[in-house]
Amino acid sequence: MKTTAKRSLVLVGALSVAAMSLTGCTNDLDAGGDTDGKIESVALMVQDLSNPFFASMNNGVKAAAEELGATYTAQDGRQDLAAQNEQIDAFIQQGLDVLLLNAVDSEGIGPAVERAIDAGITVVAVDVGAKGAQATVTTDNVQAGELSCQALVDEIGGSGDILIVDGTPITSIQDRMEGCQNILDENPDVNVVATQNGDNGREKALTLTTDMLTAHPDVVGIFAVNDPTALGAVLAAQQAGKTDIVVTGVDGSPEAVAEMSKEDSQFVATAAQDPYLLGTTGLDMAVKLRKGEKLDDDLVLVPSSIVTRENLDEYDGWK
């Protein structure tokens, strides 16, 4: 499997974290505003709280915040950058201590992040990068893209036409696409005949994939950037009567597990993440920053693992 020099796999809770940095993070890792280290309020902002991935992340952060004795709130960004800007400005007015941010737009959220830090809020990006955040924890999404795309290539026997259902302009999606491209570069007999950008959700993926299948009826596989997108692609294939098409995704979600458990499912693999762990790790990093401690690293990458129908019984799933 191809890897890139700029990344490393980090086992959260292991003895050490490999040294690396993220463009957009502050160099002063112990920056947390003028504070005595006490955390009285914690907030989590996510792209879409109705997504089970973010519901699991919310569970983790809420439990960790309660252990700190801090008040806690979660905000749904509704895939709307303007909404997240308004939410951050509201937190500034409220005097929030810690913000764990799952940005709708990794670059576009930058000015709001700067305002928050200037107001003394400690900002840690979770799951996706956010320009200007003081630290970041995310799945190794390049690896996840590689795992999912390799599973697809293996399933179609290393050749054939495929579709790609891409997503929104956030670092996790971009990294998964990079990882998939790494695998495609090694498999020239696999031909991407169409790529469309969805909104990381099932309904949009259903529409996009239906249109692509109409234009390209002979495809044998579909790579989707997350599980909701993959589930939409599966439904599109079913409705089009394309029962021989196989689909892979990224997440390891309960819905993906349920679909893959079906004997005749076309959903054959997903690269699993741990959203609960991402949330708790992000808050732990924020606590250290708030106390003025230096982090071992301002970017933590949590490894992914591939889940298939063959090893489904061994997969623990999300909390």
From TrEMBL:
Gene3D superfamilies xrefs: 3.40.50.2300
Listed GO MF terms: carbohydrate binding
InterPro entries in UniProt: Peripla_BP_I (IPR028082), SBP_2_dom (IPR025997)
Entry similarity comment: Belongs to the bacterial solute-binding protein 2 family.
Residue intervals of the Periplasmic binding protein domain: 42-294
Protein name: Monosaccharide ABC transporter substrate-binding protein (CUT2 family)
Main location: other
SUPFAM superfamilies associated with the record: Periplasmic binding protein-like I (SSF53822)
